[in-house]
């Protein structure tokens, strides 16, 4: 027996491309862009969101029949806030420098629209296993965009990847720098993230014409 | 007084919620198709930030930070409850939003009709929680300054959504490449506007030096000011924005 049925596999693969939470559903952009100046921060953020969304979806799905619908928003907020506190404390304990870089954006996972959106749209109406897969799938879709943006911003902006100088040393003029290449400081400033995401959307929609909006 | 004025302009222009730290982007992109709805949501954000930031400041000061419980008695001086701040802040915000909604509905039905539908949305707007978290991490000193910070970041967010809504209304008549229509072009315009807003960074110092900011942000600002010198010609984006704003006022 296969581990995942075809329907289950679709829950994971859909958000990676044609139903991507960032580029198609326009969710979770808030905390996504500010921390993508470095690849490492993007990866950690993606993992943190994956944990919160996966576990949160299961918890909400298990409680879906006992949550009164009038106060469901506040119940959801409490569940997310608890999980985010766990993430924040773990980061502070094991990766203090990184938690400084991410600063308030770890806390802002609470109001990440992807999480509330998936709780509302999926976990409240589906069983725990499917909710878990849906959570992982959407977090992966979110992570993919974050990693792509982080990759290009770090490579073009500082000439490094995960801190390694892949393009040579800008001061000693080795590698690409010896032929006059320069880092594009423009990529480091926050607005560049928006432009990179804009270009990703452009590429994706050029490849799949069905996604084009009217206006 | 001077620090109030400084914080006011800094929060609106230099640390603009949308262009500098990307907070509240979800509703910024989703509710910016028409100027009138954008104004409604923007006003609601100013309102809620003005209420929740001072409230969370009080919570932070008297309950959460290291040694904050000392007013209960000297034996409580060692408690540090700051790990609870996320859950308390978001609970305060969600409660306040509900309360504000009920009060506004009772006393001003006309205001409720224009703001009402946006209020539930706001509980999960990152700009609101972000306002409280930045208030905490930037160590704002007094209740008055916290109120000022709430109002001025709200105004910054309001200006941003107003500007993008006006641009999106106009861009309907332009010939945008089909794959960029809608979301894509909005992202790129927001990026360009953000670059324009970066030039406000010189406002507090007169332009030549980087603004005197907290050390964790210092490095970023140094990098930015170098780039700014290279890209002074980006100013015309600002001018465009101003003319859009004028168009709205008319």
UniProtKB/TrEMBL annotation, chain A:
Q: How does it sit in the membrane?
A: Multi-pass membrane protein
**EC nos:** 7.2.1.1
Q: Indicate where this protein resides in the cell.
A: Cell membrane; Endomembrane system
- MF term (GO), any: oxidoreductase activity, acting on NAD(P)H, quinone or similar compound as acceptor
The reply to whether Ribosomal protein figures as a keyword in the UniProt entry is no
| InterPro entries for the chain | NqrD, NqrDE/RnfAE
Q: Subunit structure, per the record? A: Composed of six subunits; NqrA, NqrB, NqrC, NqrD, NqrE and NqrF.
- Recorded family membership: Belongs to the NqrDE/RnfAE family.
What protein does this entry describe? Na(+)-translocating NADH-quinone reductase subunit D
Q: Which organism is it from?
A: Euzebyella marina
From TrEMBL, chain B:
One of the entry's Gene Ontology molecular-function terms is:
oxidoreductase activity, acting on NAD(P)H, quinone or similar compound as acceptor
Stated membrane topology is: Multi-pass membrane protein
Task: Decide whether keyword Ion transport is in the record.
Answer: yes
One cellular component (GO) term of this entry:
endomembrane system
What residues form the membrane-spanning segments? 12-31, 38-59, 79-104, 111-134, 146-167, 179-200
Reactions this protein catalyses? a ubiquinone + n Na(+)(in) + NADH + H(+) = a ubiquinol + n Na(+)(out) + NAD(+)
Q: Which UniProt keywords apply?
A: Cell inner membrane, Cell membrane, Ion transport, Membrane, NAD, Oxidoreductase, Sodium, Sodium transport, Translocase, Transmembrane, Transmembrane helix, Transport, Ubiquinone
* Leader peptide range in chain numbering: none
Q: What is its main location?
A: membrane
GO:BP terms for this protein?
respiratory electron transport chain; sodium ion transport
Query: Could you confirm whether the keyword Transport appears in this record?
Result: yes
Q: What class of enzyme is it?
A: translocase
EC numbers, comma separated: 7.2.1.1
Q: Where in the cell is it found?
A: Cell membrane; Endomembrane system
Q: Which Pfam families match?
A: Rnf-Nqr
Subunit info here reads:
Composed of six subunits; NqrA, NqrB, NqrC, NqrD, NqrE and NqrF.
Record's function text: NQR complex catalyzes the reduction of ubiquinone-1 to ubiquinol by two successive reactions, coupled with the transport of Na(+) ions from the cytoplasm to the periplasm. NqrA to NqrE are probably involved in the second step, the conversion of ubisemiquinone to ubiquinol.
Q: Which family does it belong to?
A: Belongs to the NqrDE/RnfAE family.
Name of the featured protein: Na(+)-translocating NADH-quinone reductase subunit E
According to its UniProt entry, this protein's organism is Euzebyella marina
- The record's gene field reads nqrE
């Amino acid at each position: 027996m296969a581990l995942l049925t075809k329907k289950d596999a679709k829950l994971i693969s859909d958000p990676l491309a044609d139903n991507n939470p960032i580029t198609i559903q326009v969710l979770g952009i808030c905390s996504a862009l500010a921390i993508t100046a470095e690849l490492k921060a993007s990866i950690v953020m993606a993992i943190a969101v994956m944990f919160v969304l996966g576990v949160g979806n299961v918890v909400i799905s298990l409680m879906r029949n006992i949550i009164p619908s009038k106060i469901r928003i506040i119940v959801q907020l409490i569940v997310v806030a608890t999980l985010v506190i766990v993430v924040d404390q773990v980061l502070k304990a094991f990766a203090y420098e990184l938690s400084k870089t991410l600063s308030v954006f770890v806390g802002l996972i609470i109001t990440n629209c992807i999480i509330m959106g998936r709780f509302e749209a999926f976990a409240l109406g589906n069983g725990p296993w499917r909710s878990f897969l849906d959570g992982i799938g959407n977090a992966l879709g979110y992570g993919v965009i974050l990693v792509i943006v982080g990759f290009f911003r770090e490579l073009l902006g500082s000439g490094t990847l995960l801190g390694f100088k892949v393009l040579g040393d800008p001061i000693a003029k080795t590698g690409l720098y010896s032929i006059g290449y320069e880092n594009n400081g423009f990529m480091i400033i926050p607005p560049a993230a928006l432009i990179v995401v804009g270009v990703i959307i452009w590429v994706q929609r050029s490849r799949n014409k069905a996604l084009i909006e009217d206006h | 007084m001077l620090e109030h004025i400084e914080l006011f302009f800094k929060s609106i222009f230099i640390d603009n919620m949308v262009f500098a730290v990307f907070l509240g982007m979800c509703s910024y992109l989703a509710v910016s198709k028409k100027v009138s709805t954008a104004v409604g949501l923007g006003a609601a954000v100013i309102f809620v930030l003005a209420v929740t930031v001072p409230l969370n400041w009080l919570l932070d000061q008297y309950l959460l930070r290291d040694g904050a419980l000392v007013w209960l008695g000297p034996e409580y001086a060692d408690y540090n409850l700051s790990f609870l701040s996320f859950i308390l802040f978001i609970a305060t915000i969600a409660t306040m939003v509900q309360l504000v909604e009920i009060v506004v509905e009772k006393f001003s039905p006309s205001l409720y009709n224009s703001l009402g539908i946006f209020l539930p949305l706001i509980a999960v707007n990152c700009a609101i929680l972000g306002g409280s978290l930045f208030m905490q991490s930037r160590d704002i000193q007094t209740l008055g300054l916290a109120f000022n910070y709430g109002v001025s970041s709200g105004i910054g967010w309001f200006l941003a959504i107003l500007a993008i809504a006006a641009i999106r209304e106009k861009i309907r008549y332009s010939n945008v490449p089909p794959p960029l229509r809608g979301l894509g072009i909005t992202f790129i315009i927001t990026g360009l506007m953000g670059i324009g807003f970066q030039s406000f960074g010189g406002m507090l110092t007169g332009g030549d030096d980087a603004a005197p900011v907290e050390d964790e942000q210092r490095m970023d600002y140094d990098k930015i000011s170098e780039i700014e010198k290279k890209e002074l010609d980006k100013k015309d984006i600002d001018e465009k924005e101003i003319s859009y704003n004028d168009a709205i006022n008319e």
